[in-house]
Amino acid sequence: xxxxxxxxxxxxxxxxxxxxxxxxxxxxxxxxxxxxxxxxxxxxxxxxxxxxxxxxxxxxxxxxxxxxxxxxxxxxxxxxxxxxxxxxxxxxxxxxxxxxxxxxxxxxxxxxxxxxxxxxxxxxxxxxxxxxxxxxxxxxxxxxxxxxxxxxxxxxxxxxxxxxxxxxxxxxxxxxxxxxxxxxxxxxxxxxxxxxxxxxxxxxxxxxxx
Length: 210
Ligand code: GAR
Prior knowledge:
Largest sheet: 7 strands, mixed
Oligomer: single chain
Bound molecules: glycinamide ribonucleotide
Distance between the termini: 23 Å
């Protein structure tokens, strides 16, 4: 089983959906720890309640972004993860950090990337008059919410949607999509090549399975 560390900044509902999925005996990955940049993140207590080790690194405890990341990288070198899943981790990782785990960092973003990268994605999707919305799991590269796409999920936009109602419809799909994407990457069915493209094999090569 691939060793996975999940990074969170908030409530951790995606982290919990990954954790649920990894409980299946045949799931090809296990969560070995949860890391947060927010000691008060609600997801940390939820992870501990499930018996998962948690580590918080408050940004304010370090003089620079580089020192903050160095502390996290130090913990990761103990934990020896094969994969890192960003799950509502609201901090941009530096190029050095990403290079240290090239092709091994996944992120979920609540929009159909490359549309609406960054913050306030649901407001912006509604303002644009989108009729569908969704979420994207992708490999992390240097740009924010960039990087080759692993999987996407789509939901309809309803006439009376607010950013909140749309966010919660998308979140439901996130909880299905992220475990599926992690499974495919852990099995080696989807990977990022050196040129930064997604390579799909096995059942993931079939467009119908995307
Ligand atoms: C999720 O909707 C996730 O896609 C989003 O934050 C939420 C975290 O919820 N991530 C981003 O916006 C990253 N740019 P959770 O803590 O309950 O998983």
